[in-house]
Amino acid sequence: HWGSTLHGLDLIVTNSGSHGVFLNTQSDAVIDRINVSNSGGNGILVSTASSVRAIGCIANNCSLGIHVTNQSNAVFNNSTIDNSIGNGVFINECSSVMCSTSNIRNAGGIAIGVGRVSSLSAENCVLSGYTTYGLQVYRGAKVNAYGTNARKGVSDSTTDIQITDGGYVDNSTGVGGSNVSVNSYTANGVLLR
To answer: Measured in whole angstroms, how far is the alpha carbon of residue 122 from the centre of its chain?
Structure first.
């Protein structure tokens, strides 16, 4: 609800017909150990200048695992996002997310998508089993993926890290192929390694 504040521990949301947790219009939440599964919509949706801190989050078998949009921010460190029907994590419209040391596995689309001047800190993450891209960064988004493994398989692929429209990724000490050359400025963007 608009302007709401929620604090909680060990929140479990199962089989919701829509979103598991929905924070909208300047709402805030601090929830440790949240577990959302079988959500018909987003496992967690953070929208319109809202914020959430959910360390150790688990989102499993949701339409979209975690969606942060419209000038919102979120912290999901040490989390596991599994078996999303679409994207595992999606960040857009000037939003920011920190999800370091997390595992995003078996996304039906993109493991993590970041766009439209948003930012992501995803250090030491493992992105695996995705269908489309491991990490997609576009339209001026900026990502710190230090030490992150974005490889879908055992060798590099151009679908591991996809950068377009001026995206920026620092993947120092990380692994994964890309559609752009490493350490070169291109029209699509930059991948530092």
So the answer is: 8
Q: What span, in angstroms and rounded, lies between the C-alpha atoms of 142 and 135?
A: 12
**Residue 57 CB neighbours (<10 A):** 29
Identify the CA nearest to 145 among candidates 193, 106, 88, 92. 193
Tokens of 136: 């997609």
* CA nearest to 149, candidates 122, 132, 127: 127
Produce one character per residue of 39-55: b if its CB has 16 or more CB atoms within 10 Å, e if not: bebbbbbbbebbbbbbe
pTM strictly above 0.90: yes
Whole-angstrom distance, CA of residue 39 vs CA of residue 58: 12
The tens digit of pLDDT for each residue in 38-84 reads 999 999 999 999 999 999 999 999 999 999 999 999 999 999 999 99
Tokens describing residue 40: 């018909």
Give the β-pairing of 5-9 and 12-14: unpaired
Give residue 28's region: left, alpha or beta (phi > 0; psi -120 to 50). beta
